[in-house]
Model the fold of this input.
Amino acid sequence: MVAQPVTLTRRRRDPLDLARLTPAGKRAWFEAPAYADFAAIADFSADRYAITTVPLAGIAGASAAALRVKRAASFAELIAFTCSSGPARSYLDAQGVMRADLAADQPRFDWTNGRRQLALNGASANLLLNSAAPASQSLAVTAQSYALSFTGTGSIALSGASSAGPLAGVGAASRVSLVFTPAAGTLTLTMSGDVRLAQLEANSFASPYIATVGAAVSRAAETAELSPVLEALLQRSAATLAVRGQRLERNAARIVGVNGTSSLLRAQSNRLSVLMDGSAQLATAAGADLRMSSYAAACAFDGTGRSVARNGVAVVTDTGSPPSSRGSVYLGRDAASTATAYGDGWYEYLGIAPTRLSEGKIQEIILY
Done:
């Protein structure tokens, strides 16, 4: 018997498979089991992003399995960030140094809470002059909420239109704040001792510092709209959305808003529950105050109903539907840019799955 020659052929590796390997030949981070259900992931804290390999035109008709095949992406492929202000937007860098060096339309990544987070804030203005080391001054105010803040060991006394305070410093590097509502008229602020980085703004909380010299300075609202691919994922008949963040500053703050004033996820007015708008409001039970801590929230929907969840409480479901108009989707605001419900705060993570995940899966992804 004569042995026949054997021809060995090497299987050609799928280019998409190669794209999911790191240079060292290991699976990419988004191939880990924790991310298997998702079609898009924005991990702001780790500065890493992944997106479905299905092109925009094919998302509506693609299978969930196809949409879950992902590739590495950039921040700009997931988030369209805009803001007309530049240096008026301050942030802390990784070394804890305050900086004001951003260009217009540059996202603001901030380490105020000890780790990298995407910071989003609505519009505001610092009404104090020479804010780095201000002298005593008087300003015209109206009968609305104001926030006064500064860094240092000194104090600021209020007189005239308000007798609130005084606001006293607690440490050379610590920022303190006072929220008050004056009468309409002239407010006098008397500075004593070490008062630095001072700010007076018409706001319900002390927002990030805005430097001034001889005139008040305004900061424009920051807008983080989801990219067309992510919006298309959420326009399908079934999807799951998960967000992690920290310290939502406003009552009824939008976490993820859509057309008009509706939201896929937002804080209830007491900031203890998370809810979804739509055919009716579906809200979770009360948990920890969203202004005081880190949080995780999720919503899911399909043709049979929807689910909403936040960390620390059970998933709630009903047979209702999500907001029908989801042509535009925003992180931290709605399409109407409702100023009093802007999602001022810090954002760490956003993930979108192309199916309505089970209650058990949802519970897993909101563990914090």
Observations:
- The chain has two domains: 32-81+224-365, 124-219.
- The radius of gyration is 24 Å.
